[in-house]
Amino acid sequence: MPRTLIVVLGFLLSGLVGLGAYFLPLFQTAATASAVPRGLPNLNPIQPPSQPFTVLLLGSDDDSKFVPDQLNTQSMILLRVDPATKQATMLSIPRDLWVQLPNQGMGKISWAYRTGGPQGAVDAVQSTFKVHIDDYVWIGLNGLVKLIDRLGGVNLQVTNPVMDDYYPADLNASEDPYGYYRVAVLPGATHMDGVHALQYVRSRHGDVRGDFARSERQQQLLLAIKAEASHLNLTDLPALASAFNGEIKTSMGLDRLRSLLTIANEFNGPNVHRVVLVPPYTSEGYAGDQSVVFPDWNRILPLVHQSFP
Amino acid sequence: MRWAIGVGLVAAMLAFGVGVYEAAGLLRANQHTVHRPSEVSAPSLPGTMYVVQAGAIYRFQHGSFQQITSESGWMQPSTAPDGQLVAVRRQGNYSDLYLLSSSGKTTSQLSHNASTRAVEDNHWTFYPRFSPDGQSLFYDFDPKDAFSSYRIDLAIFVSPMTPGSRAQEFTNPNDYTGGDVQPVPMRDGSLIYTKFSIDDSFQVHSQVWIQRRAGSEGAALTSADAGCGQPAVSPDEKLIAMVCTKGSSQSAELDVASLDTSNLTLGSPATLVSGRMVASPSFSPDGKTIAFLAPDSPGGHFQLWTVGSSGPASVRQITSDLALDSSSAPVWING
Predict the structure, then answer these.
(1) Could you give all domains of chain B from N- to C-terminal order, each with its CATH number?
(2) Which of A69, A113, A302, B257 makes an SS bond possible with A73, Cβ 3.0 to 4.6 Å?
(3) Cα angle, residue A72 at apex, residues A70 and A74 outer, rounded to 5°
(4) Structural domains in chain A?
(5) CA distances from A114 to A108, B13, B326 (A)
(6) B171 in contact with chain A, both atoms CB, cutoff 8 A
């Protein structure tokens, strides 16, 4: 082999090792995800997605009060993105929605994740809402905090004061997981770090809308995260991935993540349709001793199928 | 010689690998850089202004910022009699009101909201504002509900500054909305503030409200659909500036309207700033300019801006790399 070729190959190999080291956190995150992304990231320019797709976004309280493999979902948001029409829909599913869980009987839809993991949640939503889900993303409490902090914070328009005297002090494992502290999020436009953004979307005690208010704020936070993430590129992903350390699980491949970044700027407030299943789509009540939310499927399914055909 | 060349090439290859690693890092999206106000200069504005960043109050004069308190939870300063300031100091589970000298020295603590009993026995106070005659202090407080430990709605209270007088609840907030906030006391004793309501379809509405006296029902100055709040009144009380969302959760515009307190009406609002997340407007001492806070890029930190109160053509960015507290309206005074 000519010496020149050996030298060129040496530099090439060295460059690839440097590149590999930079993207190593991505591969490590892939290894801890419940479904390994499909293959290595493609560093070449990629085509943005052209077909509509649906993602189920899941959030859980994963503090030390809970057994790691037996978490409920505190947040379920069905997201439909249509790149061709540049329209997106976010549908928040009440965590206490009383539904027929696949192979289990009646239960809260938030229980599906506890018994069946992410796929259990996907199955429950697919069977009850009669929709097809392409991918899921699950995130824990610390994962959300780290994500927002890595993005440099988010800007949110706080609609009304969010006051809570019993906000759980469960983010740090060293603290009493049943402890609590007071939260006061003041109204108006504000810049929030991860901890404060989590307080904003997690608190529910002081609002007449209870969990519905939380759902609305969670959708608002997603839009704010999207606004921040639209500035990112492939080289930002390793720093994000290293922050998660098992706090995020997804069935989405890296290529799909990359392609989503390419269209993120095209989806702004006016073309993102937000749906929260408030009354009359749902009604609060009791099933046995459980406080639940009863669905009115005759109203819900036509609404859902307008946006999730 | 051949060995030396080999070692040199291997070293160059290693350096190249490290270079590729570093170069990849340089391609990352720019994070927003933040400086302390005292580290930067800015275009000079007439008079003196107080702003807040990271729990510290800064005085802005002649184009430079001077830190006048430590970074220890200070927020929402406002003018007080005798050239003093009144401000909130927020700690973990409570906040208190303090009087400060113009140089930031604490002269007295006006409230004592900390509790050593249960967490929920602590109290909040926010948004202190002296009446124009300096005789009364209006502020937000969270009275406890004897029948529901979950209901925490801020109400606006008024405390006469005479010794021995008691605080009085001035407004009656709608239940489970978070309460009434951002009081602006007027010369005739009435109060303008932001009131929240939640309708049967669970939509939150924010309205600029006016009340003639403590406990009265009051009247809305803006429609529920406009989503207006954060009122600021010009020194001559003829103009009101406010932040209106008009249903958007991602932007808020700065509107200004004429104010008729005798008939409890506003003129048709004019939009001075739109397409931004505007917060906390405040009039200049001559009423001709409005200072406000807003990010200069999506997701960015809040910066100081000004705009002429008579038209939108004069929007001017004063700072560019600060992280100002958007819940603390700039205090703009003569001198």
Answers:
(1) 230-330 (2.120.10.30)
(2) A113
(3) 155
(4) 3-307 (3.40.630.190)
(5) 11, 51, 40
(6) no
C-beta atoms of A19 and B20 within 8 A: yes
Q: Judge whether A122 and A137 are in contact, CB under 8 Å.
A: no
**Model's pTM, two decimal places?**
0.87
3-state secondary structure at position B191 = strand
Angle at CA of residue B194, ends B188 and B200, nearest 5°: 130
Q: Is any Cβ of chain A less than 8 angstroms from the Cβ of B209?
A: no
Answer whether A220 sits within 8 Å of B153, measured CB to CB.
no
- Note the ipTM here: 0.91
